[in-house]
Design goal:
The structure holds two protein chains of two kinds. By secondary structure, chain A is mainly beta. Helices cover 0% and strands 49% of the residues of chain A. In chain A, the strands form two sheets. In chain A, strands 2, 4, 5, 6, 9, 10 and 11 form a seven-stranded mixed sheet that branches. In chain A, strands 1-3-8-7 form a four-stranded antiparallel sheet, with no helix packed on it. Chain A starts with a strand and ends with a strand. Chain B is mainly beta. Helices cover 0% and strands 47% of the residues of chain B. Chain B contains no helices and nine strands. In chain B, a hairpin with a 6-residue loop joins strand 3 and strand 4. Chain B is globular. Classes of the chains: A mainly beta, B mainly beta. At the A-B interface, strand 4, strand 5, strand 9 and strand 10 of A face strand 4 of B.
């Protein structure tokens, strides 16, 4: 059981470039989440999904898009990266009915120059 | 913004109990208290949660005051590996929308 995995682990982008972060979970969880964490700060929810084919906005959704085409995968896209999106991105998943017990991936460290 | 308040940092001697306080004075009747921790550079890890009764699991104990306006997470025998940022979060049980504040940095010292 790999749990929650994230690809890539590190990435450097130039302003205006686009990229997609991939989150995969093998626990058959219905709910999945994307957070960002800036230095010295707590995590902030970007988008989340309560099931395959559904997505919803979190606290800080602007500048990001997401898709959940398969239950096990949750993609986070940056269409035109900005330096303000430099952050560590964490993906998490949870069971429906136990949404408070989230399992987190190892994170993706993104730098936008 | 986070609705809970926690001390910024705390120290604890290895082998002693670590008691981490949290104030959640605006918690509503159906909202739970959740605790997570984040060891340096890793993703957060769920520890425990409670509504109004005290709770215990293999990692920690959670003591919630009778008026539910505050709680304490207890690590009974802290080890160096318990050094982490501990987050206290309040919220509805099934929305999944956890709002993380800045947490308490617990430093366990030899």
């Amino acid at each position: 059981n790999a749990g929650v995995t994230q690809t890539p682990k590190f990435r450097v982008l130039k302003t205006g470039q686009s990229m997609t972060l991939l989150c995969a979970q093998d626990m058959n969880h219905e709910y999945m989440y994307w957070y960002r964490q800036d230095p010295g700060m707590g995590l902030r929810l970007i988008h989340y999904s309560v099931g395959e084919g559904t997505t919803a906005k979190g606290e800080v959704p602007d500048g990001y898009n997401v898709s959940r085409l398969k239950k096990q995968n949750f993609l986070l896209g940056l269409e035109s990266a900005a330096p303000s999106q430099t952050s560590v991105y964490f993906c998490a998943s949870s069971l429906n009915g136990r949404a408070y017990e989230q399992y987190f991936g190892p994170g993706t460290r993104l730098t936008v120059t | 913004d986070a609705k809970t308040t926690q001390p910024t940092s705390m120290d604890c001697a290895e082998g002693r109990a670590a008691n981490l306080p949290c104030n959640h004075s605006t918690i509503s009747g159906n909202e739970y208290v959740y605790w997570y921790r984040q060891i340096h550079s890793q993703g957060p890890q769920y520890i425990i949660h409670g509504l109004k009764n005290n709770e215990t699991n293999e990692m920690a104990s959670l003591i919630i005051t009778e008026d539910r306006k505050s709680s304490t997470l207890i690590l009974p025998h802290a080890t160096l590996r318990d050094t982490a940022v501990y987050y206290c979060i309040d919220g509805s049980s099934n929305t999944g929308k956890l709002i993380f504040g800045q947490g308490t940095t617990l430093q366990v010292k030899p």
